[in-house]
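Help needed: design a sequence for this.
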């Protein structure tokens, strides 16, 4: 969403604002974090991604064959194979960089945008925050705790994040 927001004016998109919660800042760093972190994280994303790929293949069987990827259980190998078979990117690094929002990627951002993330996120390394362009339209909120999309003040009821987003978007919680 932030990459789209950064190009909204040039693409003549009428976008009022963007809010990104725990966004992937640098996909290469996130891939490493997933592989080196708690094993359940990588397994979760592998299973989720394979379900998505199977649905895509079922919808367009003449265009996609993810059989080779389906035999893998390593996100880096799976992504490299996807890049090789189904994209125009010459390398895995080029592909991952294409999704990064670090560097100058957000420098032309004019749409009011917010990033909400946590220092203790096990999937999105906070170090990449230092590599974000900081245009006036970008607000970054970094909490000490929150994990990956956690931000719970308490289990029942709306989370801190839900209240924050609804307020930011001008709504009310019922």
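Sure. Designed sequence:
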């Amino acid at each position: 969403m932030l990459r789209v927001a950064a190009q909204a004016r040039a693409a003549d998109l009428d976008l009022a604002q963007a809010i990104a919660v725990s966004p992937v800042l640098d996909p290469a760093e996130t891939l490493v974090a997933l592989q080196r972190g708690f094993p359940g994280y990588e397994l979760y994303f592998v299973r989720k991604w394979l379900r998505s790929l199977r649905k895509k293949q079922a919808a367009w069987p003449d265009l996609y064959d993810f059989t080779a990827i389906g035999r893998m259980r390593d996100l880096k190998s799976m992504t490299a194979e996807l890049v090789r078979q189904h994209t125009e990117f010459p390398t895995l690094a080029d592909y991952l960089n294409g999704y990064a929002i670090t560097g100058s990627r957000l420098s032309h951002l004019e749409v009011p945008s917010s990033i909400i993330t946590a220092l203790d996120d096990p999937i999105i390394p906070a170090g990449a925050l230092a590599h974000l362009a900081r245009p006036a339209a970008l607000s970054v909120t970094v909490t000490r705790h929150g994990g990956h999309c956690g931000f719970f003040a308490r289990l029942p009821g709306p989370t801190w994040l839900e209240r924050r987003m609804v307020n930011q978007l001008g709504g009310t919680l019922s």
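The chain has a mean pLDDT of 92.
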